[in-house]
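Archive maintenance. Older records in this collection stored only the sequence; we are now back-filling the structure field for every entry so that each record is complete. The fields below show one back-filled record exactly as it appears after the update. Entries are processed alphabetically, and RING-type E3 ubiquitin transferase is next in the queue.

ARCHIVE ENTRY
Title: RING-type E3 ubiquitin transferase
Organism field: Geococcyx californianus
Length field: 392
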Amino acid sequence: ARGDGAGMAAGADREAELSLLECRVCFEPFGPCGQRRPRNLRCGHVLCRGCVAALGGGHDGRRLECPFCRRPCGSAETSDCLPLLQLLELLGPAGGSVPAALGRGRGAPPGGLGLQMSLGGWGTLVNPTGVAACPSSGRLVVVHDGKKRVHVFGPSGSCLQRFGERGDAGNDIKYALDVTITPDGHVVVTDGGDRAVKAFDFDGRGVLAVREGFCLPWGLDATPESEVILTDSEAGALYRVVADFAKGQLMKCQMIRSQLISPRGVAVSQVSGAIVVIEHLKAQGPSSGSTRVKIFSAEMDLVGQMDSFGLNLVFPSKIYTTAVAFDKEGRVIVTDVCSQAVICLGKPEEFPTFNPLISHGLSYPVGLTYTANNSLIVLDSGDHSIKIYSAT
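Back-filled structure field:
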């Protein structure tokens, strides 16, 4: 069994390595020059120069649309992906091992986390947007842009269930934005397509759809009492949804905070009941905007916040946060798509701290959660995968 585990870990490393070094459109390996040279789009996704030109970003000035997140981008707005170019230089013309080039073979990444398994990939998942873990069964649930929007994985990585058809029926899902799992065993999804919150059991049966005049329900997380904390990005509000999901009855949908700026990701501490929210601040001028992390107590008092400027005092680089979670000790964990990293910001009373937990091997991290055994789950939209990290 130990040999099988080692083989699985090695296979996961190899899969992550191949995903990192290939263009995810043409699946050709990146190269240091010519048509295979890696180029960053404005959204952070990486394509080879040939695919950038083929998709409309050629010298004629036409704008392309990112094939992963659909954000428009012009050829003048693309740039060389320097981390990948540096990695290709380290590997050399004959190629080599990514772990060896990055020094991963000499020990665990910062924070003591090592990649244990990688699930999904293009075709299995399409532009995934949210991930959640069931604390009792170990199942992982991902929402994505495939024909069936909800994908359930078992603890071993096998596919257990797919549901949430794309369509207009009451239990269909038009465009899933995020997902959570309640302690009583229900999968709750935000649907940006018809501005609803939809709950299912693990067999895919729809049990409840909540449409309480939401403008754009986005992020959500479950409390230990099976309540759901929900952000409404367009309304700038935070809601608490109380329901008897087993009976399909909505008990209460209460706004608990207003005057937020485009709130999206949200997480609830299972230790203290604190709530952390990511605000997406509008850009002033040509900038693409920034993010702010706000933390509220269980009583919804503001206890701390950290924006890109404040974090830059600790970490001299632009930070753009896309997902947030609490670990088992109540520390705030965030993704940063600019540095392609997962970062620990510490407990609310410790702000600002900066501890990179994962600093390589990620492409465009958009989702975070923890399992009951304290494994860290990262949803990587760049290569359409789930990456599972455990202490080494």
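Update note: Residues 113-391 form a domain with the Neuraminidase fold (CATH 2.120.10.30). The CA atoms of residues 27 and 250 lie 47 Å apart.
Entry marked complete.
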